[in-house]
Amino acid sequence: MESSFINASLPDVADRMLFAVPKKGRLYDQCLNLLNHIGIEFHRKARHDIALVSNMPIALVFLPAADIATYVAKGNIDLGITGLDIICESQTADDVAELTRLGFGKCKLQVQTPAINSSVTSAQDLVGQRIVTSFVNLTKQRFAELEGVSIDRMKTQVRFVSGSVEAACGLGLADGIVDLVESGDTMRAAGLHAIDTILNTESVLITNCHQRFPKLVETIKQRVEGVLMARRYVLCQYNIKRESLERACVVASGRQAPTVTSLEAEDWVAVSVMIEKKELANKMDQLKEIGAIDILVLQIANART
What is the largest CA-CA distance in the chain? Predict the structure, then answer.
């Protein structure tokens, strides 16, 4: 996509904040789901890479994920969703601000070699050999570090390929590769195993230092954080004798503090508290042990932090 295509001087987007999201790939569906949950309404026409939001002064710009950090850093894009790996690889970390991590698209950028090659057990064993990757900058940084030299003096040969990186060793192009690993199925199917992790990555919401719509950026940030909090927590309600309330609040203290309401029954209170989903089962067991009854769990559809 040419930069003129998304220039804010275009009549349809001149007064709109530009928000870049991946146009396809592993992050696309999860980004659309997030946009829906933060109340952004739009219709994307077939083969169009700009969609006007109908209920907010925003234009969504659908870009390759690998380009989003650069457009946010250097162009007119005010907000973007991309991977932390892309920010590091595009060397734009100094020009973008990370607003929040989104909790999806988690994977690892790893050095991999053929599993049958027992002589290679660490990335150090690949120094001076052939490495194929789509992440040339991060790979060069890692191997220059291993060699203890600057990038321009390193002996390791790093070659770029845009796809099917996992095939490079089998086809004789490389002694090792650097690629993203999510479940590891593709890596294992290609007969590879990981010997080093360069970066743990996930999707992030980013902006820049030359925002044209700072208030709107903050609104979207708050909405996203609210959705993430709702996905992380549930609301637990229970009744308990007042004499056991202090112990119950130690078990489940909430994000700030529980909400406590007196009941008609003497010496009983009702408690509402937010609990992380991953801790819920254990917390319910502990509350039951100290006398809580009528324990209910409610899903949180949305929230504000």
Answer: 79
Query: Rounded to an integer, what distance in angstroms lies between the CA atom of residue 18 and that of residue 65?
Result: 15
Q: Helix (H, G, I), strand (E, B), or coil: what is residue 75?
A: coil
pLDDT tens per residue, range 218-235: 999 999 999 999 999 999
CB-based contact 126:120 (threshold 8 Å): yes
Burial state string for 181-190 with b = 16 or more CB within 10 A and e = fewer than 16: beeeeebeeb
pLDDT recorded at residue 181: 94
Contact partners, residue 191, CB within 8 Å, separation at least 6: 114, 115, 116, 169, 170
| C-alpha distance from residue 133 to each of 97, 143, 159, 182 (Å) | 26, 13, 6, 16
Token pair of 87, please?
């920010």
Question: Amino acid identity of 21?
Answer: V
Q: What is the pTM of this model?
A: 0.84
* Strands 107-114 vs 192-201: parallel, antiparallel or unpaired: antiparallel
If you search the block for the tokens 């595009």, which residue do you land on? 90
Interatomic CA distance for residues 87 and 97, integer angstroms: 10
- pLDDT recorded at residue 11: 47
| Contact between residue 16 and residue 60 where contact means Cβ atoms under 8 Å apart | no
Chain center to CA of 99: 11
How far is 56 from 35, CA to CA, in rounded Å?
A: 12
